[in-house]
Write a structure and sequence with these properties.
By secondary structure, this protein is an alpha+beta fold. The chain contains four helices and seven strands; from the N terminus they run βααβββαβαββ. Helix content is 28%, strand content 27%. It is globular and about 45 Å long.
């Protein structure tokens, strides 16, 4: 398994706009690989993940936002929701730029995240059903287990995460939820 040494650098206000654009490109790239330009997952602004969603994640006071840096170059980003009381934490967003795929950067970032928050009891995250690359990454590389598949047939016992801030037409429709129990 490739392991690339990465550094997680807190997002600066000067880099916020580029972080958002890079995030949107990384998600859009995956959908375009799967569906081409006909993708009906893309919103009215032509994005898989809306600017509003990314900004809400960045601005949430419970969240930590980092740039993934390799050899001084920004190659991705991550947003973590940290619960300092329960230590049940969420990986809100993790992306690497498409030109940096298959270099071990995502796995290096995940190892850095685990080291940064070694107190974590459980990690949770989700990804769209069509993101086979992500599903492989979370299950086969990072040790997550698929916990739920959110779709029209699924009736959760509780509301979806962040339901009060959910944008219609954007997730959690047809998403896999992943859980990694740390201890």
């Amino acid at each position: 398994m490739k392991h690339t040494h990465v550094t997680l650098v807190p997002l600066t206000p000067d880099d916020r706009e580029q972080f958002i654009l890079d995030n949107q490109w990384a998600f859009k790239y995956g959908a375009m690989l799967e569906f081409g330009e006909r993708d009906d997952h893309i919103d009215d602004d032509g994005e898989i993940i809306s600017r509003d969603t990314i900004e809400r994640c960045i601005d949430d006071p419970k969240n930590e936002t980092y740039r993934i840096v390799v050899e001084g170059k920004h190659v991705g980003g991550v947003i973590l929701k940290i619960n300092k009381e329960t230590h049940h934490n969420e990986l809100e967003i993790l992306f690497t730029l498409p030109d940096e795929h298959s270099k071990g950067i995502g796995y290096g970032a995940w190892q850095a995240i685990e080291a940064l928050h070694s107190e974590t009891v459980v990690w949770e995250t989700c990804t769209p059903y069509f993101e086979k690359r992500n599903i492989h990454f979370y299950v086969n590389k990072c040790g997550f287990q698929i916990d739920q598949f959110w779709c029209a047939y699924f009736r959760p016992e509780q509301d979806f995460p962040d339901a009060e801030n959910h944008n219609p037409g954007e997730g959690p429709d047809e998403m896999f939820r992943f859980v990694k129990v740390m201890r």
